[in-house]
Structure formats: C-alpha cells, structure tokens
Amino acid sequence: MTCIKSVLAFVALVFISCDAVSAGEFSRDFSQTETLGAQLRRLAAAARNNNPVERPQLIGGQAWLPLAGAYPGSEKPVAAGALYSSGGNVYYAFKGGTTGSNGAPTSTSRNDYYNDGGVSWVYVGLAAGDQVSNGGSVYEVVTAGLPATSGAGPTGFSSAIMDGTILWKYVGPQTAPVATNAAGHNASLTNFYDATQGLPANALIPDNSGAVRFEGGWPFVQNATATVAGPNVAPNANGAGCGRNLTILGDSGLDIQCNYQSFTVLSQANIIEFALGNSSTINIIVDDSYVSPISKYIIWDNPAYLQLDFTNSGGRKFRKIKVEFSSANGLAGVAVGPTDSLFYPAESDNFGIALVGTSLSVATTASSQAMGWGNRFRYLVGLPDYATFAIGATGILNPAAPSSSYGTNYAGHFIGDLKRYAHFRGAPKVILIEAPINDTKVGDPSFTPAALQTAALALLKDIRSQYPNALIIGVGSAWGSDNHLKGTVSTTDAANSVVTLSGGDRFGLTGMTTIDIDNVVYPVSSVSNPTQLTISGNAGAHSGLPYYAPYPLAIAVEYETAFMNAVTLLQRAGDHLTYFIQNNSLKPPQYPFIMGAGRQTVADGTCATAHMSGSKAGNAIFDVSSGGPHLTDCGYDEWGRRVAEAYRMIIEKLP
Asked: What is an example of a GO molecular function annotated in this UniProt entry (predicted)?
C-alpha cells in the first residue's frame, strides 16, 4: 500500500511517496539509458556552488570617455558616442545628428532616452557608485562630477584619483567586456548571422539549426527578428500579446505573451555585436558568470545594437555569451569581424523546464524577468533551459477576465503552451506549477478550496497524460504580509457602521479582521457580502476615501492545502513523479519563507538579511508598496533558493 511521507527540506516541506526508490551511483555514460533521477542529480551536483547565481560576477563598466563639452545648444551637430554635460549631469549621444529646439536633456533616468532633433541622449551619471572601464582597469566614482575634456582618464591603483571634477577610486582589473549601446551597426563587423534564418513572418525557428541557442520558450519570426514566445493569453488578450492572431501547429487565433527570453552564442571574437529589436533591460552572462551590474544594462531604441568589446578582458578567445532579456525584445542578428566565427553552443543535456503561474512567476516588480524565482532556481540546480508560461492575475480557477487583459486560466493555456514548447525543445522533463494566490476569492462560491482541489487534480491528470515521464512539482506561492485589498469607499451608512467598498473584489472580504480607511484602522465586526462590511465604531463620512484591508495568511493556507491535497491523491494512486513544495502552510518551527513587513516604501537595496533561516518576522526588503504582494530581486532570489533546496530532496528519491 502506498503511503505519504513528510520530509523537511530547508524551510520547505516536500511530500514524497514512501515507495519511491533511491538510485545508486549514476552511470558515467550520460546516454539515453540514464534515468531521470540520475540525470537530474548529476546536473544538480555539478551546479552546486558553480552556477551563474553563485559564481563571482565579472566587473567592468561603460568605457571612460573624455567630455566633449557642455550641451551645445539648438541646431548644433553632435557626434554619436560623445559625452556632453547639462545641469551637472553627463549624457551620452548614442545616436548622432543635429540637436533640435526643445532644449538640453534633464532626465536622470537610465531606463529611457531623450530625443533632441536628430540626437538621442541617455543619462549616464556620473554619480557616486558608477563604474567605468579604462585601460584594463575598473574605477568607481567616489564624488560625482564631470570628466576631463582631455587626457587619459583615471589611471593607477589609488583610492583617490582626480579626473576633471570627479574623484575616482581603483576597483580592480577589468574582467567584463565593455558594453556599448549604439543606434547603428559597426561596419567593421562584416560577418553577420541572421537570427531569423531567412524564414517568413510567424514561422517557427527550429532548435539547433543555426548559430544561436534560444531559451525561454519557442522562438518565432516577428518584425524581422527572432522572438521567444511564452503563454497564449487568448481569447481576451486585448492587444496584450507580443505575437497577435498567430496560427501555430494547427492552433489558430493565438495571442502570445513574451516573458523571460535569452539567446546564447559561442564565438572567439574580440568584438561581438547583437542587433536587437526593442528597448529592454538586459543581463549579460559570459562563460556562466554574470557581468556586473546585473539588470543595469538598458537597450535603447528600435532597432539598437549591443556591442561587447573583450579587448581588455581576455582578448580574442572562445567564449559562451548569453544575453537575457524580458518581454518582446527580438534578436535580428549577430555580427563579428571578418576572421571570426559563430557557433551553436551545444548542450549535452538539451531539455526544457516549464513553469506556469501568476504575476509572481512572471517576476513582476523584479529588475528584469531574468531575476524571477524560476530562472534563479533552474541555474541553482543546473537545468539547461527555462520557460515561464505564467500570466498575471490568473490562476487554476481564475481566468482574470474581464477585469484584466487576459481571459484564460492555467488549464486554458498551459497544455497548448507545453505542446508548442515540446515541438521546439522536446518534452519537458521538469514542470512547475505555482499554487496561485489569485484563486483565493473568498466569498465567491466558484472559488472555494474544494473547487480549487478539483480543478488542480484535473489539471495535474491532464499534464500527466500528455507527459508521463516528467517530474511535476506544485510550488506554494509567495504570500507577503502586503497581500491586501485596496480601493475606494463608495458609500457609508453611518448609523449602522456599514461600509461599502469598490475596487477590491479580487479576493473578496470574508476573513477580513481590520480595515484602514484614510490611515485610520477600524476592527471589522462582520462581513455582509463580497463588498460590504460592518466596522466597530462610527463609519462616519468615509465616502470617496481610500481603504486598505490586510488579507489573513490563514486564507492562503487553506487554498494551498487544497492544491496539496490534489497532489496527495495522485501520489496515493501511484504517481511517484508528482510532488508539492509547501510554503504558506508550513508549521513552526518553520515559517513561510516570504512574509515581508507590510507596505514598505523603500527597499534597502541589498540581500543582507534575505537568508535568515527560520525568521518569524520575515524580511521587509521583500515587499514594496508599489508592488503589493510582488517581490524585490532579493525576494525572488530567496524563493528560488528555497525551491532549489526542496527540489534537491525530491530528486534524491527518484529512480
């Protein structure tokens, strides 16, 4: 008879069937005869302490350039690549031309550019903490100012180096390439690879058919670029997709949302250029090490050209170069010098990992989707690809329509997403399902825990029937203390202390114990219906005032348990490849690993407290008010680490 064992893993609880068999030593012949468990254990062992998340970052910075002078004024010529000052700030002309009549740039945002006639300006600092590469060394701004208009820039190894009005300090030798963003192609790089392979619009790009390895989904041709597709958000996309009304593998009317994407090439080039289709925040990984700073390189304009120069960081030699980015930023092509080559970076383990979830699995509010928990997890355990088919505001039950742009729940899109992904990379060997918080619509009879359990069981059975050999893992969703209802009080009945609310019916009101109306906290004595409650004390004239109502963790526990029960039923029926990693329903001495500290307005910018095992209070750094229950990079990193540790326990039990 099958039984279920509870096994503690770090601070996550994993359900493991007791008749799973522990594998012996795996074979050194990594052929098709290797079992799934042996393969996953081998990859995880190789990745421990040797993966992009934990390897030392490569250091570098923008190339030091002399200041061309102060902003030249209207109708003046400006050369591309020149630095000019305005208002004490430094701006880089990534597109040259003649200035317009709207005046000098003033923005200090690094995420956008300013069009000035024929010139496009980008703010580059130079503020305290900014780094530049110069002559093979890296220097950091100690005191902000303006660089000199001539000379060699900062040199030497001192902690106090003056250049113009900037005080610099030596950081160390340059180990990262110099990354430059330009609006035009470098004509000296004559060996060009077309990422679309000349295929027509909407055509699927086959795996291992050219010089570029795509990860994150299935690539297709769009606007003369290779774009990596995520989930199908039809039938209610309302223009939200990055690929509209597509017909793929016999399925018509697809509206595709693009999430995490990456492309990788192998080359010995000293200088390599990527032609990109749209603006985006990117990460650069060279030989499995991130280039610092992460999520700070911004691609401006459409099209734009990212040039990586390795002259002072190792010169000409073979490297594996990966560029990670978010949303619909396609790759038009890659260019290298006339004596250089590009090669497909073959993986001996070429299979996929697929994730379905909510906005938390899209990595909403992270610096980029590459910083999401799923991508961090896959690097930590050595999985060779990662595709997130997550859609914000949706769930196993909840299609999120019509209040959002989407109209499909997990079952409505994930099976089709998996089919298209499997056509590209083969059947996924690991499938993750985030147990969604978006199904916790308390007070709605269609969204009960029992309904969630039934729907989860049906979804799991459907996935298992399509992918009988895949490892399927349900993952307890993050539930910060900032999960809440918020909106505006529509009407009040002062005599009976009844408050009617608007804008907060996503979760319902049952279970609410307090409500904050215009910064005054009232106890809730009863809930009349999904939008009406009675407070203790005179309701007063609150119409039109903002409210905030914290959402009890107990609700999340109830719904997570319902998903976990569906997994348990499958295990009892003999499915030994389906598991669940708990979060919200953990019991002392363990605690849910994403708790946060409420509506924090400023994160501290570090992950210094992120790995405090067993902390009851959690870490305030995870939640910020603008993101509600969404996380910072540190929160997503911590979540990925906890899932990775639980996953390692699971695969130890696989045959």
From this structure: hydrolase activity, acting on ester bonds
